[in-house]
Automatic annotation (TrEMBL):
Necessary for efficient RNA polymerase II transcription elongation past template-encoded arresting sites. The arresting sites in DNA have the property of trapping a certain fraction of elongating RNA polymerases that pass through, resulting in locked ternary complexes. Cleavage of the nascent transcript by S-II allows the resumption of elongation from the new 3'-terminus. The keyword ATP-binding does not apply. It is found in: Nucleus. Residues 140-226 form the TFIIS central domain. Residues 80-93 have a biased composition (Basic and acidic residues). The gene is TCEA1. Residues 3-80 form the TFIIS N-terminal domain. This is Transcription elongation factor A1. SMART domains: TFS2M, TFS2N, ZnF_C2C2. GO terms for molecular function: nucleic acid binding; zinc ion binding. One of its GO terms (cellular component) is nucleus. One of its GO terms (biological process) is DNA-templated transcription. Keywords: Metal-binding, Nucleus, Zinc, Zinc-finger.
């Protein structure tokens, strides 16, 4: 299965390099019939190949099917990613009480699925409608855009999400530059602090929210005091970043 997906990815990468997407539709249709897993997405990086085809192709059927595949793969981020997780999920005892009958649990679960679907649709609409960052020939700015894009590639979330990390990095840099209007030390410290936040292994939800569009690039660029995150086994944590010196600390 993995070898087959890798073969598809290589074919699509060649199509992108040659700027000839002939045959892409057939490959995408074959991919649609493959039961995708998060591990398969991470090991083959097929999401990047499909996203590249989507951006380059002028065939509406190709772009539509590519978007559909990427959207379906995003759902893997919301559920258990391994067979072990699925087994553990099945072993969890059912929680029942007079105040929480099974019917209510079913209704709540359906509501949560519906809410997640609405959130994903809102993300897709936002990301596609956000204006592209204007190009620049400034070597300092170009380097900063590259470093921000590299920070967004930390982990494999950007593959499953299908985000254009290079464009997002450019949008973040553009917002920083428009506020500071210079590439002096203040500008560099601001870029450095954003990169540090995006790479932070203890705060992965921040990076996911930026990739998904929940946190717009311009908001992330000027985000000053706190980014809050909560997981099931840790208290509310506030991350503080100084825009002047780039120093970073946290408190609970």
């Amino acid at each position: 299965m993995e070898d087959e997906v890798v073969r598809f990815a290589k074919k699509m990468d060649k199509m992108v390099q040659k700027k000839n997407a002939a045959g892409a539709l057939d490959l995408l249709k074959e991919l649609k019939n493959i039961p995708m897993t998060l591990e398969l997405l991470q090991s083959t990086r097929i999401g990047m190949s499909v996203n590249a085809i989507r951006k380059q192709s002028t065939d509406e059927e190709v772009t539509s099917l590519a978007k559909s595949l990427i959207k379906s793969w995003k759902k893997l981020l919301d559920g258990p990613s391994t067979e072990k997780d699925l087994d553990e999920k099945k072993k969890e005892p059912a929680i029942t009480s007079q105040n929480s009958p099974e019917a209510r649990e079913e209704s709540t679960s359906s509501g949560n699925v519906s809410n997640r679907k609405d959130e994903r649709n809102a993300r897709d609409t936002y990301v596609s409608s956000f204006p592209r960052a204007p190009s620049t020939s400034d070597s300092v700015r170009l380097k900063c855009r590259e470093m921000l894009a590299a920070a967004l590639r930390t982990g494999d979330d950007y593959i499953a999400i299908g985000a254009d990390e290079e464009e997002l990095g450019s949008q973040i840099e553009e917002a920083i530059y428009q506020e500071i209007r210079n590439t002096d030390m203040k500008y560099k410290n601001r870029v450095r602090s954003r990169i540090s936040n995006l790479k932070d292994a203890k705060n992965p939800n921040l990076r996911k929210n930026v990739l998904c569009g929940n946190i717009p690039p311009d908001l992330f660029a000027r985000m000053t005091a706190e980014v809050q995150t909560r997981s099931a086994d840790e208290p509310m944590t506030t991350f503080v970043v100084c825009n002047e010196c780039g120093n970073r600390w946290k408190f609970c």
